[in-house]
Each structure stands twice: as structure tokens, then as C-alpha cells.
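Submission sheet (multi-component)
Chains listed below:
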Amino acid sequence: MISPKLVEVGRHNNIELITNSEVKGVDGEPGNFTVTLQNNPRYINPKKCTGCGDCAKRCPASAVNIINKGYNDRRATYIEYAQAVPLAFAIDMDACIGCGLCENVCLAKAISYSDKVKATEVTVGSMILAPGTKAYDPSQLDYLGYGKYPNVVTADGFERILSAGGPYFGHVMRPLDRQEPKSIAWLQCVGSRDTNRCGNGYCSSVCCMYATKEAMIAKEHIHGDLDCAIFNMDMRTFGKDYEKYFLRARDKAGVRFVKARVHTVTENRETGDLNVRYATDSGEMKEETFSMVVLSVGLTIPDTAVELAKRLNIDLDRYNFSKSEPFAPVETSRKGIYTCGVFQGPKDIPGSVTEACAAACLAGSELSGSRGKDIEVVQIPKQIDVTGQDPRIGVFVCNCGINIGGIVNVPAVQKYAESLPYVVFTDSNLFTCSQDTQEKIKEKIIEHKLNRVIVASCSPKTHEAMFMETLEACGLNRYLFEMANIRNQNSWIHSKSPELATQKAKDLVRMAVGRAATLYPMQEKRIPVNHRAMVIGGGIAGMNAALNLGKQNFEVVLIEKEPELGGFARKLHHTIEGGDIQEYIRKLSAEVMANDKVEVLLDTEVTGFGGYKGNFKTDVAVGKGRETRNIEHGVIVVATGAVEYKPKEYGYGESDKIITQVELGDLLEGKGAKDLETVVMIQCVGSRNESMQECSRICCQNAVKNALVIKKQNPDTQVFILYRDIRTYGLMEDYYKEARGLGVIFMRFNSDDPPEVKVEGDHISVITTDHVLQQKVEILADLLTLSAGMRPSDTKKLSGIMKLNSNQEGYYMEAHVKLRPVDMPGEGIFLCGTAHGPKLITETISQAQAAASRAVTFLAKPEIKLSAITAKVDTQHCVKCLTCLRTCPFNVPAFNTETKVIAIDEAMCHGCGACAGACPRQTIQLGFYNDEQITCKIDALLAGGM
Amino acid sequence: MAEGAIKLGGKKKKSTIMDMVKEILPDGGNLNACLTCGACSSGCPATGLEGMDARKFLRMAALGMDEEIMKSNWPWMCTMCQRCIYVCPMKIDIPQLIFNIRSRRPRDQRPKGIVASCDMAMKGETLSAMGTSVEDFQFVVEDVLGEYQEAQPEFADMEAPIDKKGAEFFLNQNSREPVTEPDEMVPLWKILHTAGVSWTYGSKAWAAENYCLFIADTENWKKMLHQQADMVHELGCKTYLNTE
Ligand SMILES: Cc1cc2nc3c(=O)[nH]c(=O)nc-3n(C[C@H](O)[C@H](O)[C@H](O)COP(=O)(O)OP(=O)(O)OC[C@H]3O[C@@H](n4cnc5c(N)ncnc54)[C@H](O)[C@@H]3O)c2cc1C
Ligand code: SF4
Ligand code: SF4
Ligand code: SF4
Ligand code: SF4
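Outcome: structure written.
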């Protein structure tokens, strides 16, 4: 998953990667910082290194492989992991014995033993701190046996054990004897939620989910019975779609979730198995034996980040996370310096990626005045016209160091290529992807008037785009390019049969030549981008998105269906940290109204929709008079929000003494708690049940927040919170602890034994079972508060008009949970706030900033290029069976009722080819992959006489 | 109405046992902070006895079930080993809670055997729960020492002094050894002899066992400590070596 992002960053023209370096100091002010760097030596020049790995193959010195948690060794010349960017080796001087072998074998001449520490400076306008996290080291918890018993591992160590790139190549084995485990126990909250042994009072937010995932993967990897047990206090699977995953693990995969905290882990000396004793809920002692124990270690801030923060004058909180305000989540205490990821607070990947976009948004708006300066723009020469020319094919065969050349007879393949039809030039290179080879390819294209180019090397997935750019850079159309993968699909897998591998390489090259002859230039349509944004929904998300776009000088139309801005937050008073929500939305809406780039349309709804990315046309009905307006805009930000669930359970509506958590917030703000004797709260009302499987995320903290207000106003009020799992994730755990400290009683119930509620005169009787005493409890309350969950705003109408996909619960779907968390599947459409899924205001704000940031990457372009790889229908032969309509995952093919033909809009087509494959009449062709271009490859293969 | 259910809610009770114990302990012993995780019960040697365990006991206290708490014999089964607080993520001082609950029982309702041992200790000058007198102790020590000096020539000049003024260490001694297993005293003597340190027993206040502590009789416990301290000061010893 991380690989494409790494490659993108590595190749980006305007990202300069400075690795192995530390920030020593920052001077200046926002807009103009001077950053002092210390560049530590790598001893291998990353610009020259091709990543072939020959040095590591010869290096005689070994060192402990830290990334694999020491479960195996690596060489002194090393690369941390296979996908690393830059894909360049380095020398670990602590392990190097100075033998000089690597310098001898490196054909790229990249080794430089004399590298020294250097000090350099860079000037920047703003900064983003993302120093991340370090897993908690459990060695100090002597009772868990980590470091003493080999089969007790940390969760990050277990990740490596599961990984194909890990010490056991993805085969699940335990460290002691490399045996496949029969049973594995996970112990949760190690180094989290513990103020006694480690002082980390917060919840790390991610370990419940990763433990569940690890158990699922381990079960997949080990065929046969693997018993997985997760020992936990609360399962905190509060993220979007996480509860479904948890239920699948529990009910389908049979992962056991045990509510217990283990006291001590002991080892059976003979077998290396681990004994775990625990008290069940009923207080009965149980003893179980596991082959392995995984400690679900928490997230901590590394000392290096603490020192960095000190050097930069950034305030940290008591757990060393960067200090931030509830309404400014990604800002640090120093102006112009932003933060994201775990350094901001414990969080998972989607949250980190979202915050990263938010930080980029703020860092970018600071610099928006100078947008376009200091960047490198690629200049593309005029295209050479090749129409009417016979194919003139050039074939470049790659050695890839010894990756290909060490097995495949490259000169023989090159010679063979010469004999193929239309081939007028062949060459072979040590590294075809290196910068100097690109120059050489360009020269040869011009010198030999090549009009088709083939590179026989590695995977088009990683390299095709780059070679296509090389063609473009000397005027050749990028679609006149073809690749033969003679490495990943050949030399790597047939390394033991060089002759057959050479033969296969020839076959692959012949197929490529066959296809190359059929290629023709294709033009990418360029369309102008309308620089106006439309934001739908005027809650905290919509307002923040609109305001940030406005501040970056883009016109925005903000549409709100109610007569007022503010959304659901108008019903809320304070955040759990004490932030004044009403004051915040007052200020925010005033700022939105005052921004001359933002036009606010209240009382307005979307009535019609058309167009495509960069050029949408939306009809809206404005104001009381429902006056219709057509708005043209380049992007859409969807921020339609969510509301509180109206409970059907626990007697809601039968008595004014049964209210929701939001109503309690009003009551406390008004009358206060002075008259309250006993308050009972019931959690998960309308969440985590059959009709709404997901967790609403906001209600546990809401209960704790209101309980604290009650206890602070009136310490004599008794408060009971009946819950299933308390999900006060992240730093909110501190408030849960504070509530217990003030005497709030938390009682866990099972979903199959919910509390019974009876209205008895002016009291409410609540009967439940105390989970500790296992006895029935009857609480006589004068107020029952239901922690009603969240429901997406009624979005059926809007999604019908705009063709937006939502999940089972009705929340809109993002393009990719981790890689593109605020993009919607359709290009140019972005998503934020509770319309995406339940979240708190702080999280809503950073997501809105993220959506604005993503929208800017679109709006900042004068025009966009559409891919030429799109599907086209031959309407003459189409029988209108509508198979394509049913097949396309993006709903692009449409039947035009006037002209009575199928139309596929090239601006909307994603080029996946699903329709082309499904069309029974073969009347759909996908550019660059049309039928002839595929079948000719097969013909070429068969022509070799298989 | 749920039959036999624990009744909660209504007006807050004035002050519960837990409230009172919290007053005494630093940070209130964190008694309110329980996550009900069960780590304490998972490691406690007394879990399951009388159907009770540390987490349940704390829970009863938190729910204000003072009557049940005072009736329960479970507090007397706690060994004060501290295994619970050692791993408790909230550092909840269960042993202190238990101690303070023990001390709230009328003295005549505490476990008879232990009460009798405390009473016995308080009767004599030696503080021995077995009632060993100054003379008996002196006799046994001298007798055993003589035997070993004779039988094992390498320890011919070993000492077991009583009331030696100015000794570095004041050693206490559980009464069980001099009374029932006198030979068991010797290994420690040998170690001290080999190490060449200067030590002494006291003729008075030498008994190491402290049953008053176990029945939470703070008054007598305090008295015992004073007597021990006085003896150490009288002899001018620098260090009190507790062998219990
Ligand atoms: C019960 C409950 C309790 C909560 N408690 C807390 C809390 O204690 N602390 C906290 O931090 N957060 C809390 N939240 C979350 C907080 O409310 C949200 O994070 C935040 O308000 C979301 O802002 P938003 O802009 O995404 O959505 P909303 O506030 O819902 O705003 C969406 C806006 O879009 C408008 N809209 C909807 N559809 C259309 C349409 N088709 N056309 C035009 N306009 C449209 C709506 O009228 C609304 O104004 C709670 C949420 C709920 C439901
Ligand atoms: S409750 Fe929080 S700290 Fe504990 S394992 Fe789950 S996510 Fe981690
Ligand atoms: S109360 Fe809300 S946040 Fe807590 S577990 Fe239930 S649904 Fe999730
Ligand atoms: S270990 Fe501590 S927090 Fe856990 S149940 Fe026992 S007393 Fe409560
Ligand atoms: S101190 Fe008492 S309650 Fe705690 S573990 Fe030991 S015996 Fe159990």
C-alpha cells in the first residue's frame, strides 16, 4: 500500500528528499524560515546508486536487522526495506570492516568511503513536523517476560514476522524454534492506559484494531487451526467500518476476545510455550497455554522528536505529543510550523494521512501568494508526426546490474531482437532507468528516427510512466511505447535455469515487438479547469473547507440547506477539552461571511447536476422563493454532515426524564446539575446493533464529558454509565480516568442482556447486571440519558442527483481508505466531516482542511489532461444490450434516450476496460489496449512455436 | 422490582467506608480509578476464596456495599503480598484498603488465633507471640551456640551475642525457631560470622513476628515498634536487621 506513495514522492519534480539528515535549528519567521541541517553520511551516493544490491550480496560484514526487530541479520551495506525511497543503499559504518569489496563490485561507482558529516541550510516558507512514533518498549514490565522468553514478541515484531519482506519471509513462525504456532495470545494496552508502570495514561487508539488484523492475517497464513485470543479491557474499534471488521473476526474467523488483563506470563522451559493465568469476569481463575504471546504495545513519542521540538521551540503536552488547541488541530505553538500524524496525538493511518493533507493546506495557504514560484515545470517539445510512416522500432534491453544480466544472456536477446520485423535499432544498458540512459535513449530516437520504443527490463507498474516521459521529452508520442518485463516475470523467478530464462526473454521481446507495431499515437485531451469550488453543507466541515479555499484565492460557492450556518455543532456547547463550540462557530461563520471569495447560499438545495471533473454544472434552488441558479464549478466538496439518532429504545419519549446526551448538554448548560440526585447513562443507543453495526465514535466521550460537568457542578450527584466498551480513545482516556476519579461508576453490559428501563412515578428504574459482581443491580434514577449515536444527514436525494456512493450506513465513501481518505471515487470530488463518518469537531476540522488541500491541487492547474486510455463504443454495431451500463464500476456508460445510442464520456471514463471485456458484441475498444493490440501479442507468442 | 438486586441510586449516602479510607491514604490510594481490568485478581493468591477476589472486593467498596464488606472474611485471607498493586495499571492500593477494613472490625470479631498471638506478644518484654521469656531465649541461644562451637571446630569462635552494646546490627528473630527449630537459627549466625560483622540479639523486644499488624491492631503494632526501637537505641546499634 505504501509503495505507490513512496514512488510518487521519490519522483516528484518539486519534492526534494534530504535523507539521513537532522534539523538542527530554525531561524526567521513564517514565510521565510532558514533551516539548518546536519547531513549525515550514507557512504553511498544515492544519485548514482541504482539499487541493484550487488554490494550487499558481497559484503562480508553482518549486523542486526533492526527493522526486523533483530529476528534476522543484514549486511553492513544495506537498504532498510525493499520499497525504500530513495532506492539507494547505505553503509552502516559501525558494522563495516573496511574490506573495500563493495567499492570493487559497484558498477555504478556509487561508493564513497570518505563521506563526512555536513552542515547545510535550506530556506522555506513554512514547515511541517511529522516525526512520528516509536513503539513502546515493554522490557521494563518484568511480569510480561519480553526479552526473557523468546516467544513473547511485540506487535511491531509480529508485523515483521507476518511480512513477506520480514525475517521469515511471511511464514508465521515463533522465534525460539521456528515452529509454526498453534495458538497466539495478544495482550492489549501494553504501555498504554497505564499510569502505574509506564506513565502513559492515554489510549494509543490503534492497537485494538491492529491486534484484530494481526490475528486475522495469522489465521490466513497458517492453514489449519490457529487459536487466537485477544485479552482486552475494551475493544476500541471506533473507526469507519472498523466494527464490522471486529465482528467478522469474532463471529466468522473465530478470534476470541477475552475481557481480562493478564497478571504474569510464565514460560514452560521444555516447550517454550507460555502460560497465562487470568481471572474471568466472574472471578474464576483460568490458565491457558499459548505458543506465542504478542504484546500490543502502544505508541510513544521518541526522544529524538522531543529534542527536535525543544530545538524548534515547540510546546509539548505531558505525554510529549505536540500541544494543540481543539479548534486548530494541526497547528503547533510556533506560528508557521504545522504538525500531523502521531506526533499530534495517537492515531491510525487514515487519520494521519488526513492530517498530513490538512497540514499541507495550512502550510500552503501561508505561501499562496507565491504559488508557482520556485517550482520546476516540465517543458514538452512539439510532437513529431509519425503518420504514414512504417514502424521503426528501437529495442533497449536492460541488464539491471546483474539482476537480469546475471541470468539472461542479454547480448543474445539483443541480437535476437535485431532479427525481428520493423526493428531498426537495438541496444543494451547496465541500468536502462538511470538518468544518463534516458539521455542516451533520446539521442537514439532522434538519430535513428525511431517511432516505436521498447524497453525490455522490469515492471511497467513502476517504470512505464518514466519511460513514456522520456519519449515525450524528445517529441515522440508517449503511447508509442511498450515494455517487456524480463526481470520480475523472468530472471527473478527462473534464476536457476538461465537458458530457459534467455529463451523466455526472447519470447517476451518478440511479443512486445508484435504489439509495438500496432501502436499509434493517441492524444490526451486537455480541458480547462473552472477555478470555482462548490462546497455542499455549511457545518464546521463545509465552513472550514470554504474558508481555506477562499484564503487561497479560489472562488467558492457554499450551499447550506438551512437558513443558518453551523450545522449540528449549533446544538453542542463545549468540547471535552473545554473549547467553547458556540463561540467557535460564531467566529467561523462571521469569517466565512466576510471572506469576499466565498459566496454563501443559505436555504439552498441542489436540484440538478451535470458535467465532469474540472467542469461541473450544478443547479440549485436558492432561498424561500426556490429561485433556480446554474453554477459552474471545477470541484465539489461534500460536507453534508450528520445528526443525532432519535432513539426508539429504552422508553425514549415516554417520560421527560429520559433524554439524549445532546439534550443533557442543553440541560447542564441551562439549569445545571444541582437538582440531580442520580443520573444513569446508557451507551451505544442506536449504534453497534443490527440496524447500525458501526460505532458512532462520539458518544463515549460525550457521556464522559457530561458526567464530568455533572460531577464538577454537583459532586453529590451519583452518575452511572452503562456501557459495552468505553471508547475514549487517544488523549480522551485522561477524561475517562478523571470521571472515575470523581466517583462515576462504569458498568459493562452485554448486547444480549441490555439494561431494563421502567418509568416509576417520577423516577426511572434501571435494572442491569454489574459485570464485576455478576449480580443484578437496580438503580433508581431521576434522569436517564441515552447516548444516542449518529446518523448521516438524509443524503439519499443528493446522492441520487450527484451519483455519489455511500456505504451500508449511508456515509459517503472515500476513494481509498488509506491513500485517498478525503477524495471521492469520482475525480474532482472531495469529502469531509461527518458526511464521511462519525467524528469529533477536532477531527472534522482537520479533515475539512485536508479536503480543501486536495481541492487546491486540482484548482491550481490551468487545465487538466485526460488520459487517452478510455473506452469507445462503435455505435453502429452496438446492440444496446446495456451490459456495459451494468458492468462499469463508475456508472459512466449511459444510454442517450434521444439519440438512442450508448455514450461513454471520455472525461469520466477511468480506463479500467471492464466494459470492453464484457461487451458481448466486442463493440467497445479501450485505447492502447484494443483487441488487436492484445491478440497480436498472443499471435507473436505462438509464432515462436510453443 | 428485581428480587435480591443490589439497590443503587437515590440520594448519595453520607460517607462510605471507601470514602473514609481514601481520606487516609496518599492520593486516596487511587481507589476510585479502577478500570475493572482484573489484573489484580489474575495474580492474587487469594482469588476465589469465599467466592471473592480483589477486584470484586474493591467494587463492593466503590458501590458503597459497606455491610457486605464488613461481613466478609476475605480481607483476612489477603497475604499483603502486593502482587495486585505491582501490576495494577492504576496503582490502586488494594492492600491498604484491606488493611483499613480489617482495622474497622471490632477486635473481638477478628480471627481468634491471630488476635491471641498479638495479645501474647504484648504481654511479655520479648514481644514473642509464643510467649518465650527472656531467660528461655538466652538459654536456647547459648545452648545451641555451644553445641556448634564444639561440633564444628571451624566455627569454634563463632558468637551469638545478646545485648552487645555498640554492635553494628540489631538482629531480630522469629520465635518459632528458638522454640521449635533451634538449629534453624545457626545458618544466619554462620553467615554473619563469616562476613565478620558485629551484631547482636536483644534480650528484650527480639521477636520478629508481628501479628498485631496482621489483625490491623495499629495501637499495639505501634507499641511493638516503639519497644523494638527503644531496645536498638539502648544498645546503640546502627541498623535494625529484620529477618521476617
Ligand atoms: C449526537 C452527536 C454528538 C456529538 N458530540 C460531539 C462532541 O461532544 N464533541 C465534538 O467534538 N463533536 C461532537 N459531535 C460531532 C460534531 O457534531 C461533528 O464533528 C461536526 O459538527 C461535524 O460537522 P460537519 O460540518 O461535518 O456536519 P454538520 O454539522 O452536520 O453540518 C452539515 C451541514 O450540511 C447541511 N446539509 C446537509 N445536506 C445538505 C444538502 N443536501 N444541501 C445543502 N446542505 C446540506 C446541513 O444542514 C448542515 O448544516 C457530535 C455529533 C453528534 C451527531
Ligand atoms: S484500548 Fe487503546 S491502548 Fe488499549 S489496546 Fe485498545 S487501542 Fe490500544
Ligand atoms: S457509546 Fe458510542 S462511541 Fe461508545 S462504543 Fe457505543 S457507539 Fe461507540
Ligand atoms: S488491577 Fe487495578 S484497575 Fe485492574 S481491576 Fe484491579 S484494581 Fe482495578
Ligand atoms: S496484597 Fe492481598 S489482595 Fe493484593 S495480591 Fe496480595 S493477597 Fe491479593
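Remark: Residues A 536-542, 559-562, 567-569, 572, 575, 605-606, 639-644, 662, 698, 702, 705, 790, 793, 798, 833-835, 839-841, 844 surround flavin-adenine dinucleotide (ligand 1) (CB under 6 Å).
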